[in-house]
Amino acid sequence: MNLDEQRERCRKAYRELAAIDPARYGGKFLEAQLRSIETNIEAGVLHGFAIRAEGLIERKRQRMASLNQLVRAPSEESGELVIAFKALADRWQRETGMLSSISKKYNHDAYQKIIALGKPVVPLILQELQNNPAYWFKALESITKASPIGNGQRVDLAAAAAAWIAWGKEMGYTK
Fold first, then answer.
1. For residues 131 and 158, what is the distance between their CA atoms, to the nearest angstrom?
2. 120: closest CA among 143, 97, 139?
3. Dist. CA 100–CA 118, nearest whole Å
4. What secondary structure letter does DSSP report for 78?
5. Would you write out the chain's pLDDT as a tens digit for each of its 175 residues?
């Protein structure tokens, strides 16, 4: 492999690494690595750069694959989704009920995990909203990309809950 091919192999590997984990390997790290690749003229050193980057990529892929197996989506058929939702909703309400900051409620780990469950959890959120009104609106907006409350319209919790519940019935999420 000639020097230009070695450089291209390094560039490709570090760009792929930055795409897999931009927080750690993007930005200044990527820029510094690309500068090093461009200024380095020894094929052996470039080969080392490529081997290091490709090794990091492989370890990241293996870690992501093992995490994906551990964090599989709960099954709707077996009731796992209901159990997962209830546990997360209870945790969210228990740990954020005393907070006055709505953004802290929205950014809570359990709330974000509920959002990650996706559309299958929408009927459960709407049911929870009907039984126990709380700030589920951002989760519903994030999942459904809808907003039955007018843009910029200020409404109280009860009115917002009623609007979402009516929307859920209209869209077939609830009866």
1. 12
2. 143
3. 26
4. T
5. 677 787 788 788 878 877 877 777 777 877 787 777 777 666 667 667 777 777 777 877 777 666 555 445 555 555 788 888 999 999 999 999 888 888 899 999 999 999 999 999 999 999 999 998 888 999 999 999 998 887 666 778 888 899 999 999 999 988 7
- Packing angle, helices 122-131 and 80-96, rounded to 10: 50
Q: What is the pTM of this model?
A: 0.56
Long-range Cβ contacts of 133-140 (<8 Å, 24+ apart): 133/157, 133/158, 133/161, 134/93, 135/102, 135/105, 135/106, 136/161, 136/164, 137/164, 138/106, 138/111, 139/106, 139/111, 139/114, 139/115, 140/164
Q: What values do phi and psi take at 165, rounded to 5?
A: -65, -45
Helices 157-170 and 137-144: crossing angle in degrees, nearest 10, is 30
Instruction: Give the position of tokens 């200024």.
Output: 39
What SS3 state is found at 152? coil
Give the integer Cα–Cα distance in Å for 51 and 45.
10
